[in-house]
Amino acid sequence: MAVDAVLFSIDKKKLRVLLIKIKQGQYEDKWCVPGGLILAEETLEEAVKRILFQKTNVSGVYLEQLYTFGDLGRDSRSRAISVAYFALLNKPEGYNIGTTPYYADIEWKNVAELPELAFDHKKIIETAHQRLKAKIGYSNIVYSLLPTDFSLTQMQNVYEIILGEKLDKRNFRKKILGIELVEKSNKILSGQAYRPAQLYHFTQRRLTLF
User: Fold this and answer.
1) Which of 59, 123, 143, 199 lies deepest, with the highest CB count within 10 Å?
2) Beta 82-89 vs 2-11: how paired, if at all?
3) Distance of alpha carbon 38 from alpha carbon 48, whole angstroms
């Protein structure tokens, strides 16, 4: 029994996922999401937090259980069942990303341009992306991908990157302000080529449904 972690972030206007490269064996030179076996004394959440830290040096991020993957043949080496999680990280440049000597490399990859993946990890990433797309429609989950204070334009950009489509500016702002998801902060965004923008913050920086 294993856990896998799909770690998303937004960088350079792209939705990215953190992948590690297998160094040797049957899946040599293929990429995968961080994962590993659950220890006998661990809960699922304890296991995914441990493995994510050991294999990426990332901790303290939003985590949510996604789905259990157990198709026959998903790992040609042996029967394997994995409970997948997805995680969200703001400002990836603020983390000292690294992996163990067991792996050849670790990199952020564009979700829209995935390399060749081991196991069924393409399916796991796609499932996580679909969950994230759905969840931004009824929760404040994007707080994990934004700084404490942000403009509504910055917030809309995050939605558009996740959804892969442009949104109407007027309708977006009307909806966001109408459900009282955010409130004005006492700061403005200045020093840009355009006029200063009002900054906002989430009324709650924990998962809230609406």
Assistant:
1) 143
2) parallel
3) 8
Cα–Cα separations (whole angstroms), residue 139 to 3, 32, 135 = 25, 28, 6
CATH topology of domain 2-122: Nucleoside Triphosphate Pyrophosphohydrolase (3.90.79)
Tell me the domain boundaries of the chain.
Answer: 2-122, 141-202
- C-alpha torsion sign, points 37, 42, 44, 50: negative
User: Rounded distance, CA 109 to CA 146, Å?
Assistant: 19
Can you say whether residue 9 is alpha, beta or left, with left for phi > 0 and alpha for psi between -120 and 50 degrees?
beta
* Pairwise CA distance, residues 171 & 149, whole Å: 21
- Among residues 88, 119, 83, the alpha carbon closest in space to that of 17 is found at 88
**pLDDT digits 0-9 by tens, 89-138:** 998 888 899 999 999 999 999 999 999 999 999 999 999 999 999 999 99
Q: Could you tell me which CATH class the domain 141-202 is placed in? A: mainly alpha
Q: Model-level pTM?
A: 0.94
Q: Is the dihedral of CA 56, 59, 18, 10 positive or negative?
A: negative
Q: What is the pLDDT of residues 142-157, one digit of tens each?
A: 999 999 999 999 999 9
